Amino acid sequence: MVGATVALNDSPPPPQLSPRAAAAASAEPNPSAPSSGLDIPTPTSIEVLIRVRPLLSHESDEDTRNASSCISTLADNRTISINHPSKQLQCEYDWSFPQSSSQEEIYDKVNSCVNSFTNGFNATIFAYGQTGSGKTHTMFGPEGYAVQRSTYGGPNHAILNANAGVIPRSIVQIFKNLHRKDLGIVNVTAYVSFVQVYNEQLFDMLRDPRRSSSLEIHEEPGQGIYVSGLSEYAVRNAGDCLALVKLGEENRAIRETHMNTASSRSHSLFQIIVEQTRIEDGAEGERVLKSKFNLVDLAGSEKWDTRKERKFNNDQISELTNINLSLYTLGRCIAALAKNGKALEKDPDAIPVHVPYRESKLTRLLQDSLGGNSKTVLIATLSPASDCLEESVSTLRFADRAHSVMTFVKLNEKRPVDHALVQRLQSEVARLRALLRDGGSVNEADISGLTTAPSTSLAASPDSSSSNEALQKAMERITFLENDNNALRKRLGMPELPPSGLGGVSSQQAGTPQRHTPSKFAIVGGGNSDDANRLRTDGASGEMGSGAAGQHLIEMRASHEKLSALMMDIDRVTSRFFTFEIEEEELKDVVTKFMKAFRKEKKGYLDLYARADRDGCGIPVRGSPNFAGKVPRGGGGAKVTKLNSPMAGPPTTFKKENSSPFGSSSPDRTSVFGTANRGGKVLGLSGAVNAAGSVGVAYRIREKGDKSKGRGPSTVSPKKRGKNFNANPLNNSVDGWIQDDEDDEEKLRKELKAAKARMKKQMEMQDWLEKKEEKALQQLEEEENARNKRGSWRSTTRS
Ligand SMILES: Nc1ncnc2c1ncn2[C@@H]1O[C@H](COP(=O)(O)OP(=O)(O)OP(=O)(O)O)[C@@H](O)[C@H]1O
């Protein structure tokens, strides 16, 4: 359990909050801080909140369950206390909510996660707990929680009732944030999707109420994990979003069980993706942020009760088995991730154990949230009833493990190339070249305005040796600018320019105590392309000038190229794994090999930087006072912008249909600002409402590969999408096609037959699962022991 835990009875001694976890928790990125450096993943532990709901009347009813309340929270708001004749236990988490907690109090504790999301970080909030323990109540609100939608659809018109849960509250906060004037947001688009995992199959909750077309999960480099075929609705305001939540809830698989009159039989994932462009005061150029927010309401775990077995029909058996199976896999993933976190803490080169994400749809869907790039909060819900004690302890154990899991949070930022800056750098290089050719000296004023370049003083001096020194520095500076310029050109997709040669001198020339003239430079490089090529070749073989910076840059460039090649190799082999061309073992072997080479090369690269720094080349290096937080690339201290970020987005395009029944089809209606304001000023909010009074929300569909299509709902063919597909999610009546009853009956009969055939197996599986869980945990222990003995292999906890 987190922090100090007092074990009162038979519970094992509590693990303390690890130093690494504590450090990581304090190292959590500050979303409102300037972006620089936040694209470096920050290890952050999953935040664990526990909520104990009140005892319900049917639980305490003497004629039915006659249960008493045996779980409470202590005044420190962290400790959960179990007080039952068979078990006494106290354990501490990040926060524990007492039975009397309001929905608002719960939300207040996750609000920072919502703010992180709107500031460009991926975030996840998920509710876990026994069936009937209050997950849906916490995430959505109790049945009938009223959310008023505005006719105008502005964020402040979405009025929540006090019972509204985390999801509706988050939505309102998200749109409030996106409309803040001080964040420099000039354009923003928000997409919403809602998917459920029912019987190990994925269904679109917004367009497939009858669960007729199951969807597949895919992963592609640069895009992460996504559900192919899932509709993503472009929402303009909180009102749109809340209407979709409500619709999705209506389409969720629920059933009355002995524990809950409306028990969710599927795991649901409500996802919001926000793509925003910001232009901040005083910042160079615009930033594009793209972040994902996952709000997950899991189906509840439930023990197989043999006394009630007879009352279960085939569907129930199938649901229960699948729910338990996926939660069991979730538990194993959490256990493996927790082990990896602890092992890495002890030994950074520890070999991670396998995390079985692929063994269930749920864990595959949540892979990023559990061990990837996401700030994650777990809300574990408990019933205080004495007859739920066993399940409650099991939930607490799960929560405890979850807290040891590290995710790696980073800002999902893309800084589009600033063409003006490139132009300025190019003309700066040209100007410096001209100055040198004319035999003039270069002084500080000549290079003003280039804040990212090395700040070498180039004051002119009548003394020939110091002027030679100044010249040397000027040449180093030119090399720097040329490299920087080429790095920018590369990002623009433009061909690299050959080195002019002005930035490098031979050892002989460097030692010449005379002012360099244009003709001298012509000997080295002279700006003509042949010479430039020669220079590059010479440089690569180490003959290029003895100017320290020139030499360092050549070596660093070579090292950088090797590192890039290794990264590409790793990327290639990983892609092959995801396309099932190679097995996990092979992946591990190859990656181990590459990582070894990579580490070695990286060390050399950092050493080069250190040497360069020592030699006074003005290149910031880790540990030196001028290091800004990351190793510069492209041969200098210029600010590095990560273009190859995972925010490349799904392979989708957005298309609007003129004939859309969703009201206006103006091209701006997908923007939260509702205006054609890309890069311009915000003109206001769009609040198009169609004649029927339902807000029109267009959507796009994620497809595998790059054949994505955006569609207007009116163009979707019922046959293509399945006959029960609801084409218009916000129209309450299912518009479209008429059911073919006979076909359905036949289909149902077949399904029933198949379910019967599976039933026996599933019941056996139930027993087998419990045994397997024990075995898996034992195996993890063994693996950890073996790993401690074995050599070193460093990796992340990602599977
Ligand atoms: N904090 C709470 N205060 C009052 N009632 C609550 C609270 N939490 C849950 N309940 C009530 O308990 C019952 C079960 O809650 P809920 O449906 O949210 O459970 P669940 O964990 O989502 O169950 P399942 O996994 O079966 O879907 C509901 O009637 C709900 O209104």
Question: What descriptive keywords fit this protein?
Answer:
single chain; 799 residues; alpha+beta; Kinesin; 12-stranded mixed β-sheet; 3-stranded antiparallel β-sheet; 19 helices; globular; disordered N terminus; disordered C terminus; binds adenosine-5'-triphosphate; coiled coil; microtubule motor activity
Describe the model:
- InterPro entries: Kinesin-like_fam (IPR027640), Kinesin_motor_CS (IPR019821), Kinesin_motor_dom (IPR001752), Kinesin_motor_dom_sf (IPR036961), P-loop_NTPase (IPR027417).
- It holds the Pfam family Kinesin.
- Residues 18-36, 448-467 have a biased composition (Low complexity).
- This is Kinesin-like protein.
- The protein has 799 residues and is an alpha+beta fold.
- The protein has three domains: 19-415 and 743-789, Kinesin (3-Layer(aba) Sandwich), CATH 3.40.850.10; 419-535, no CATH class; 547-640, no CATH class.
- It has 19 helices and 23 strands.
- Strands 2, 6, 7, 10, 11, 14, 17, 18, 19, 21, 22 and 23 form a twelve-stranded mixed beta sheet that branches.
- α7 (314-346) packs parallel to α19 (741-789) and α11 packs antiparallel against α12.
- The longest helix is centred in the C-terminal third of the chain and has 49 residues, at 741-789.
- It starts with 18 loop residues before the first helix and ends in a 10-residue tail after the last helix.
- Bound molecules: adenosine-5'-triphosphate.
- Adenosine-5'-triphosphate binds next to α4 and β16.
